[in-house]
User: Fold these one by one.
Assistant:
Number 1:
Amino acid sequence: MPITGSPERPGRDERPGRDERPGRDERPGRDERRRGPILTAFAPGRVNLIGEHTDYNDGLALPFAITAGVTVSGGPARRPRMISVEAADLGERDEFELVDPGYAPGWRAFVRGAVIELQSAGYALTGAELRISGDVPRRRGLSSSAALEVALCLALLGIAGRAVTDRIALARICSRIESEWVGAQTGLLDQLASLLSSWGKALRIDFRTLECRDVPLRLGEHRLVAVDSDEPRSLRDSGYNARREECRDACSRLGVHSLRDADLERAAQLPPPLDRRVRHVITENRRVDQAIAALTSADMGRLGELLNASHASLRDDYEVSTSAVEATVARLLAAGALGARIVGGGFGGSVLALLAPGAPLPAGAMELVPGAGAQLL
Ligand code: GLA
């Protein structure tokens, strides 16, 4: 893997924090403080209001950042070419050379991948000591992985004194970390949502042009919640990759570059299940703009209908639901939700529900408040 950015060794005078002299009472074990200002990067998880399995089909989506996310704090390392990192929630550590760290599985793959992919993209990094912690539930379709990639990149860049000028380019780097180092295919939905969302707003993303536009998420007294289906993840990655493959197959049969260019009439002539897969993508794209219209006119009943229609399409046409997810959706609708649907890649994970004013929070529900995009705190 080419490394275009050469690691820079800061000179004595350039070391960040040189003005912060250690106080007498600061004993050696607390030397992290003495090395300089601690930088903290936060990146949120996301929930996709509507527009599922459309990102890798050049389609539309409407995600928003949630308030839960991953925090990476740290500062320059004593040894300029080393990265040391602590995964605080797991009680584990890693340490490796800035150049050529090699591969390590699990959370370490994200850190090593971030270091290499940033350098490959031309960012010169410096050694860093990092601490990772987070409160976004893992493996529930809430993009804890994207939050981790994004927070790591912001922290590494911040410590190296590099400004992030192009957040879309950074989203692509984060997506490469996931595909090349963690081995999971993703579109750009999760990374863009984490990097570009704003408080109180959803983000309409057009994946053909990567044009992103804020959409105020005004729900009045209504509430959005996520409820875990408790489904094990076994099928999730393989099922996700299989759907992407089916979409590629449908494109080549239809002679189109992406399913954004497909139409319902011709899709109906494809052999099953490709006909249904394409129908989901086409109708889901339409539902994104219909949901924006419902939000704009504060028609929460209509928004609920669209969530239900999205779920039916994901269940029947895209076939990414499971019995545990169906039971969760049924439970939420029976409790009076205006709409409920599976979120994220599917095959388990969380269910999103729109609750009417005053409706009690269902058991195990996490209330979703649209939060800020990733930032240095
Ligand atoms: C996962 C992927 C996203 C997107 C969704 C489905 O979350 O990471 O890129 O494809 O599934 O909408």
Number 2:
Amino acid sequence: MSEAPYREMWENLNMDLPAHDALLEVLGKFYGDIYMSQKGRLQGMEYLDFVLSEVHGLRIKELQDAKAEGRKIVGTFCVFVPEELTLAAEAIHVGLCAGADAGTEQAEKLVPRNTCALIKSFIGFKLAKICPYTESCDLIVGETTCDGKKKAYEAFAEHAPMYIMEVPQQKREADRQLLKAEILRYKDKMEKLTGKTITADSLKKSIKVVNDRRRVLQRLNGLRSANPAPISGRDALLINQVSFYDDPVRFTQSINALCDQMEVRIKAKEGVAPADTPRVLLSGCPMAVPNWKLPYVIESSGAVIVGEESCIGERNTRDLVDESGETLEQMIDALVDRYLRIDCACFTPNDERMDNVTAMAGAQNADGVIQYSLMFCQPYEHEAIKLGKRLDSEEIPSLAIATDYSMEDIEQLKTRVEAFVEILK
Ligand code: BJ8
């Protein structure tokens, strides 16, 4: 992770430089062990290595330069916040979910200990002053999904400029109306924040930009159905993670080029692991940077991950916004329709997720599913039971794992995953 040229910028962002140095050092080592040690990586992954090496450097500099030109930065924690409207107001949209155990002690002064690691992590990063994205934001958008997040945002609002978007918990007509009203309220908020009016033209363009990014991620996932697997699950997860930070147009171009390389590899029947390697679908909670623990355990246990059914994965890319709308009203309706299809476990009922996971296991030619929940995540831990039964009835082997960001359980995880991989063999 590069440092030297950016110290002044981090200082200006009021970051805690010694704590940040320590974080970068750990991250660099972790990345080296988990990513750079892989064999047979696609050449296109150099772009991702570069982006990650500059994740707190060059990308933050770009955000600061954009701010100097009068653009606003909007941070989010959930794929329910319609990025299309952020971009149509000429603001920059970044994901703030965090995947490391940092600032946990401080975080536990704001939220109860039995809060999931993702929530504690974004609070910890803010309180410990080690996240330049959070510090760059002009507005942070929370949403009413799980109880943990809802209440955490109240506490977080004492430390950051927050806006809360209401997300319905069911999918009836009344819920659709609620989501539409909230999407319109978000549009107004973006216009007020940026001083720009969102027009049919600007929204049409941003719908295309975000859809194009979803399309390239769909392409990537489609190619992962090949056997032998043309890319590791770790690399594919990294691509999905970077999609939340990077410039969307540049990202789409780079990943399209990487997909071209994957196609060449597939034609040559080459891959990152032999064709008889057990293929695993990961399903459940989002895995934010640098939460690579479980993928690493799985892929160092003799399996390959062929898909991520999560918000940092397929749940965020499965559905496109209909691009045929011409008026603002038609495009807003298209946004509502698309966002209401998200199958987050915060919905009740959420049967479509059971169907989607089953279909995805088939489409990716997976031999089994590993369900991943963060400890204390009520929605996904509950659904793990229901989904486990459904997968049993489909005769798809599955394993449910609940963990957090610490390394304490790594040996135990290895034992359970290795036993599951043996079954798949
Ligand atoms: S649409 S999955 S991004 S809410 S892991 S904080 S659910 S206790 S992240 Fe999510 Fe939006 Fe849903 Fe997706 Fe709560 Fe669970 Fe923690 Fe979670």
